[in-house]
Amino acid sequence: MGKIIAGSQRTSPIITLLSTITKEYAFGGQNVNIVQVRNFGSDALYVGTLSNMTSTANYEVMAVGSGTAIFTSPKGIGKIFLYPTGNATAIITSWKATDLTAVDLDRTLATVIINSVVSSGVIISASLPAGSALIGKVGIDQVTAHANEVVIKSAIPAGTNNIGDVDVLSLPALPAGSNNIGDVDVASLPALPAGGNNIGDVDVLSLPRIKTPVIYNVACTSADTEYSQALPSNTKRFSLSVQLGSVANNLRVAFATGKVATPTAPYFVIQESKEYYEDETDLASVTLYFASSNAGSVVQIIAWTE
To answer: How is the beta sheet containing 123-127 ordered, strand by strand?
Structure first.
């Protein structure tokens, strides 16, 4: 099983998509291995690695309206292309990972057994018999109602027999000792005790949702003059850019006052045509200070909290 590299997650700002117009999204000069696309539109959104893809050809996955699609690239990709079939917005989350195989995660379907009834119509009414008995090959009739019901009447024999992949809803308690039940996907864990404990490498399938966006527009009326904006408490992600910014102008940004009007280290500079963003943050009380080389620039900030 592939492992996600700690600290490699990156999440885009909200991306606006126009119907049937392909949009390119790059991963900041890095190659990623796992890509998740969340479609907030009501129509299908196609995702691929080729610029000439359409809704009928050359795409990797499709995210239904208000749905999510995930795909992997063992070798890594530096950009993707989005093809919406209607006006939409989307958010892209990516990870780097190791030891992946070429599997589209969103196309892997599980078989769920609930109270001895499989959702496809297979009924297990008794235990499989002991021994080397096989249940054989089963043909699927997709036309006749109830034609695919299979009855298993005996216990599964002891040994190394394999009945395939099964989703288990519950297990009996493990006895005390050093028993090993092999590789297990764990749905939930008790709280970790306080301290510097390390739970090792963990494959993360989902993360808490960041629900509340706040948008700020700050006019830099005068050039080379400090302006500021306080971020909300517990900000988890934010981005900063200039509305209709030009490559000819630059924006100086700092986290302390007195650094940007007259450039005084430490501060950093971005072209006004670029965007700066941070995610995986937990900011209790932070203020951004900035100054533009151009009078009249409007700085736009979007901050997300839970």
So the answer is: 113-114, 117-118, 123-127, 151-154
> Coil, strand or helix: which one is 18?
coil
Q: Which CATH architecture has domain 3-106?
A: Sandwich (2.60)
pTM: 0.35
**pLDDT digits over 255-300, tens only?**
999 999 999 999 999 999 999 989 988 888 899 999 999 999 999 9
User: Please, are residues 291 and 297 in contact by the beta-carbon 8 Å criterion?
Assistant: no
Domain 212-305 class in CATH:
mainly beta
CA 97 – CA 71 distance, rounded (Å): 12
Strand extents, DSSP E, 134-211: 151-154
Give helix then strand counts, H and E, for the chain.
Answer: 0, 23
State the CB neighbour count (10 A cutoff) for residue 251.
24
3-state secondary structure of 213: strand
Whether 3-106 shares its CATH topology with 212-305 is answered yes
Domain boundaries, the chain: 3-106, 111-166, 212-305
